[in-house]
Design goal:
The protein has 112 residues and is mainly alpha-helical. It has one domain. It is built from five helices and no strands. Helix 1 runs antiparallel to helix 4. The longest helix has 21 residues. The model has no long low-confidence stretch (mean pLDDT 79).
Length: 112
């Protein structure tokens, strides 16, 4: 019996909501809270200061309807396959793990 892809649907819903709230990346006031760090921050000081949500929220930021559409198509296809083969927690780890690593590296290596 196939399970409903709860995590995949939750990630898609979160991405759509964030896209609408940020007007597809046009609202800088909201975006500054979703990126790995503020433009004036150095390294990972925001995360070290307790803003750990910044490790995951960049996953849901999309800059335009086509960007959102194509990413959600991939997420729907791949997310369902991963969830069908693994537990509910595994897709979250496989999705967040590389993203956190990439975002952390970007935060550490971007020019000051």
């Amino acid at each position: 019996m196939k399970r409903f892809p709860f995590l995949t649907v939750a990630l898609i819903a979160a991405s759509v909501i964030v896209a609408l709230i940020t007007s597809f990346g046009a609202d800088d006031d909201v975006l500054q809270w979703l990126f790995i760090g503020r433009p004036d921050s150095v390294g990972l000081e925001d995360i070290a200061g307790g803003q750990v949500w910044r490790l995951l929220t960049p996953l849901s930021v999309h800059f335009g309807p086509l960007h959102l559409l194509f990413n959600m198509m991939w997420l729907w296809d791949l997310g369902r396959m991963i969830e069908a083969r693994m537990s509910l927690v595994s897709p979250g780890i496989s999705c967040a793990g590389p993203d956190c690593s990439d975002r952390s590296e970007t935060g550490l290596t971007r020019p000051a």
